[in-house]
């Protein structure tokens, strides 16, 4: 299946058919991920394969997910572009099957019930999201500088002064903005 993706899927049924889903999903359909982004007009590229595994009774979902999203750098608080990539590999189980029967490093999904494809994709992308979104090392425009604090090279009467780390708090106490 390519292009237009279904809203609801039953992963085990897709695996029995050996289906492949390729297309794009709107970021705004993934409310948790969209809430972390500065713009929800982006689209997520989806390429998922549902197939029978090496063992006859093993079903798997594998594939690639990618999205380019706008987020806030946690270091300088400026907007930045972040490339999210996930390569999910899940063992698809029926309700009641024991996940412990599979190797511990394999993720499992109870997949015999309908699930929103956008939620499945969103979960995988959230796992790929870094804990701390920041520009690459050395590329952050505000690195080494606290917000609202004068730069270290500020001169007063020809004498260089060091910034006071809590100067912003003093301004707040006086009611300055």
Could you characterize what this model shows?
Plays a role in synthesis, processing and/or stability of 23S rRNA. It holds the Pfam family YceD. One of its GO terms (biological process) is ribosome biogenesis. The protein has 177 residues and is α+β, with helices and mostly antiparallel strands. The chain has two domains: 2-128, no CATH class; 145-177, no CATH class. The protein has four helices and eleven strands. The chain has helices at 11-17, 31-36, 117-128, 167-174; strands at 2-3, 8-9, 20-26, 43-52, 59-72, 79-86, 89-93, 107-110, 115-116, 155-156, 159-160. Strands 1, 3, 4, 5, 6, 7 and 8 form a seven-stranded mixed beta sheet that branches. The protein has a two-stranded antiparallel sheet with strand order 2-9. Strands 10-11 form a two-stranded antiparallel ribbon. β5 (59-72) and β6 form a beta hairpin. The longest helix is centred in the C-terminal third of the chain and has 12 residues, at 117-128. The protein is elongated and about 80 Å long.
């Amino acid at each position: 299946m390519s292009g237009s993706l279904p809203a609801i899927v039953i992963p085990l049924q897709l695996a029995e058919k050996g289906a492949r889903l390729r297309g794009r999903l709107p970021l705004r359909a993934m409310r948790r991920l969209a809430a972390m982004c500065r713009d929800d007009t982006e689209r997520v590229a989806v390429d998922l394969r549902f197939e029978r595994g090496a063992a006859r009774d093993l079903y798997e979902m594998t594939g690639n997910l990618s999205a380019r999203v706008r987020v806030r750098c946690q270091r300088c608080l400026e907007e930045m572009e972040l490339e999210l990539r996930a390569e999910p590999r899940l063992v698809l189980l029926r309700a009641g099957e024991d996940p412990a029967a599979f190797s511990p490093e394999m993720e499992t999904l109870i997949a015999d019930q309908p699930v929103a494809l956008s939620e499945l994709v969103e979960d995988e992308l959230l796992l790929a999201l870094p804990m701390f979104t920041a520009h690459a090392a050395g590329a952050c425009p505000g690195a080494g500088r606290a917000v609202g604090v004068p730069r270290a090279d500020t001169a007063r009467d020809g004498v260089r002064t060091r910034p006071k780390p809590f100067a912003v708090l003093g301004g707040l106490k006086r009611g300055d903005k």
